[in-house]
Amino acid sequence: MDSLIARLGLGDPGWLDPAVAGTLFLLTAVLAAVFHKLVFSLILRITSRTPTDLDNRMVRATRLPMTAGIIVVGIYLSITLPLDLDAGPQSALDNAAGVVGLLLGIMAAASAVSQVFGWYSDSLDGSPSSRMSLRMLPLLRRITTAVIYAIGGLLILDLLTININPLVASLGIGGLAVALAIQPTLANLFAGTYVMTEGIIKPGDYIQLEGGTEGYVVEVSWRSTRLRTWGNNLVVVPNAKFAETIITNYNEPLPAVNVWLTCGVSYDSDLEQVERVSREVMVHTLENAPDAVEEYGAWFAFDKFDDSNVNFWLFIQAKDRWGSYVLQSDLIKGLHRRFKKEGIVINYPMRTLQFPDGWGPDALAGVNGVRGTGRRGRKQGSRRRGAGRMGTPVRPRSSRATQDVVVGGDAENLDRGEEETPRS
After folding, report:
1. Helix or strand or coil: residue 219?
2. 0.70 cut: is pTM over it?
3. CATH at residue 245
4. What is the full DSSP assignment across 348-383?
5. Which domain holds residue 387?
6. Strand order across the beta sheet in which 257-265 lies
7. 205, 338: one domain
8. What digits encode the pLDDT tens for the residues 91-143?
């Protein structure tokens, strides 16, 4: 710089160096103003013609840091060019300029990342998965910004010739200790991220967990998921357990729920009549129940020959989980009423005991030393045989020595209620 001034014949006056420094600073200030006002405005006009506004956001995010960077470069040149600094001041000035440049770069990067998250948040629609993403974006934005500032801080320390290896090692050990200490919290946090991003559940869904807990989803947070049960109680499930259990979502893929009902009729029943009556009950329920999906139709089929009945199943569809309980109750009441009216019998398990000749209750009572098997014995035998088809037969009493009597044979004498003479 001094040689250039000497060639111009200006010599080395005392005012020249400050004048050159001020001139360079004014030129960079004017250049920064032109860049900030005109160049960026022109760039914004060009990017406004693109289909997306992400580029506009990025330009706005870097506008202020780049303008400040031009001013910093002007200050650096206005000091270093006219002034012949020694090695020490020049090194300090280089370090200061580097630190300021890194700070401006960190600010630009953090602002650009924030604008990207904002653009993605604004581009989401109102779908359930989008609502879950909206809840995750603030946390992801903070984490990303913190990582950018942390990396920038390490670069600044390294630029200042500060050994960051012990700091990195201590941060690693400290991070491991903290991670072990808050392991349950981190597990719930990452599980909550998985639950939110998957979009398998959302507030308002009716779900059932593997252990039997069921209810409406009230809230899905980072740490836990809250359910409101039928008892109007709040159940808080940690996300770590929630992500590992088997979940039945009754609102997906559609809120409609099939109502499956099984029943059985006596072997003496007319199966054609049973099917006709069952279909009439289902059609009546579909036409009169507000919770039924009439377009789905009604389905009926016989299932198998069971021990006491011929089993069959029928099902219709309800609009939601709550409606399925209402329809199931209506079907049970309608079938019971129509079967009773039509004389269709629904059997229940019952046992008939038959004894061989000479081994009836009266004979066994005589063997055990009980005298008299007259009217009292007949009344007891009648009471033990049961009161009819719908009653439950009472098992005959016997002593410990007669509990292993073989069941079977002829019970004719018992049916007649005749007295028997115990065999000796």
Report:
1. strand
2. no
3. 2.30.30.60
4. ---------TT-SHHHHHHHTT----SHHHHHHHHH
5. 361-416
6. 257-265, 310-318, 299-305
7. no
8. 888 888 888 888 888 888 888 888 888 887 777 665 555 555 666 677 778 88
